[in-house]
Amino acid sequence: MKANDRVVPEGARRRRRPTKQGTVLSEQLIVETALRLIGEHGAAALTVRRLGAALGCDPSALYRYFRDTDELLLAVADELIGRTLRAWRPTGEWRADLRSLGLRMHADYLAHPQAAMLTCSRVTGRTHEVSSVEAILGVLRTAGFPDAEAVRIYHVFVDQTLSFAALDASALVLSEQAREQEVRAWREVYARQPAASRPHIAATAPVLVKEMRTSGYPAALEMMLAAASARLLHLRQDPAGA
């Protein structure tokens, strides 16, 4: 999809007639279809030809909604954020709320690993992303973090979550053979290191083999929350230290 300056205003976008498949085009339908196709074909799915075929419409009709594939990709990224926000239920306890949000974000991206690899590094500037920034900053400022601290922790929280989501997604899209090779490396290489020359690996081998088969994100999230909690306690004891 190439850049196009003829995007139709939102109120005028709805097709008067259904597509060949009997559906009526909308931005939401296009985004959901793009997300499905990305899951099936990766980045190669983002062409007007593939999208038009999947939607049963003339590919040129897509330009009524998106100027180019990059704008569509940003809409896909925002849709993933929106799905997380719609399911997230804050409790008012900042640490629990950030934990539940982070774990849900991570899980929602891994449910769409191909899309995660394409979108985790993008800033959409769209509705759901703006709402998520507002929500996270609200959790932190309500907890008592000064503005500069709230922004810093927001930055670390989001980048950590997205980084792990992209990393873990890249593992999920590996071939079965490649995934098995990685598991085998921990089991057959690291677990067999001699204590004489690799004492620390040898001493921790059983735990290492088990741990490295799972995502490090939950542990990293807990470490980040613990550091933020310690920082908040310090600020309450010594406000001048802010």
Quick structural summary:
With 242 residues, the protein is mainly alpha-helical. It has 10 helices and no strands.
Question: Could you characterize what this model shows?
Answer:
By secondary structure, the chain is an all-alpha fold. The protein folds into 2 domains: 10-67, Homeodomain-like (Arc Repressor Mutant, subunit A, Orthogonal Bundle), CATH 1.10.10.60; 89-173 and 212-241, Orthogonal Bundle (Tetracycline Repressor, domain 2). It is 64% helix and 0% strand. The protein has 10 helices and no strands. The chain has helices at residues 27-41, 48-55, 69-87, 94-110, 113-119, 127-143, 147-172, 176-188, 199-211, 217-237. Helix 3 (69-87) crosses helix 6 and helix 4 runs parallel beside helix 7 (147-172).
Oligomer: single chain
Instruction: Quote the distance from N terminus to C terminus.
Output: 49 Å
- In CATH, the topology of the largest domain is named Tetracycline Repressor, domain 2
The first-level CATH class of the largest domain is given as Mainly Alpha
CATH architecture level-2 label of the largest domain = Orthogonal Bundle
Query: What is the percentage of strand-forming residues?
Result: under 5%
- Write the CATH homologous superfamily of the largest domain: Tetracycline Repressor, domain 2
Radius of gyration: 22 Å
How many helices does DSSP assign?
10
User: Could you spell the SSE succession in H and E letters?
Assistant: HHHHHHHHHH
Number of domains: 2
Averaged pLDDT:
91
As residue ranges, the low-confidence spans are none
Number of strands: 0
Global geometry: flat
What structural category arises from helix and sheet content? Answer: mainly alpha
Largest sheet: none
Give helix % range.
55-70%
